[in-house]
# Entry
Amino acid sequence: MFLLGTLVNGLLIIIGTLLGKLLHRIPENMKGTVMYAIGLAVMVLGLQMGLKGDNFLVVIISLVFGAVIGEYFALENKLNALGDWLEKKLGSSGQGQGSISQGFVTATLIFVIGAMAIIGALDSGIRGDHDVLYTKSIIDGFTALILTTTLGVGVLFSAFPVVIYQGLIALFATQIDRFVPTELMNSFITEMTATGGVMIFAIGLNLAGITKIRVANLLPAILVTGVIVTIIHFYQLYF
# Structure
């Protein structure tokens, strides 16, 4: 079953959120310190990912054009609107206005951005090997638990875009493997990891309260990275 790893990933995010919900009654001072700690940890993770790129110029160009596209289509506003809609449907969560929106957007970005989602989904779809996604599931479940203690139950809803995103990759994995050369895929994953790392670092800055970067508006940078890496690959191949 090629979707098994993806479904386990979504399930552990939900379980982690429910466990984190049991711990939400912690003192505000402690909650604030935990939020700073999470922000610092996420920044370190983003920094590690960002330094894995082979050509940082690709990362810069991708982020610039990705930001232009994201701002034009106001992706952050659309994600927040979806979170606000969920908040209205569920009623007051008792954790402050907009908590579902913030938790949903932040967790979705953290769980979706990264190489493990793509590599794991490809392994699931091509070879039926779910080990990478099982590992990601454990990490995401624990992260969901921690995030829920400060961002609220909105983290739970990030499980749905994660399942859809990874599920689509797993579904079309055979076609991707057939038409995309291995060298090109490896190059894309490397540069995508670095580009995503910058976004993860920005999320950490937001969590720590240092900045308020509209990280969701940077998401098109992943697609731009794919386009640039493809152009470079075929240019080097034929010229």
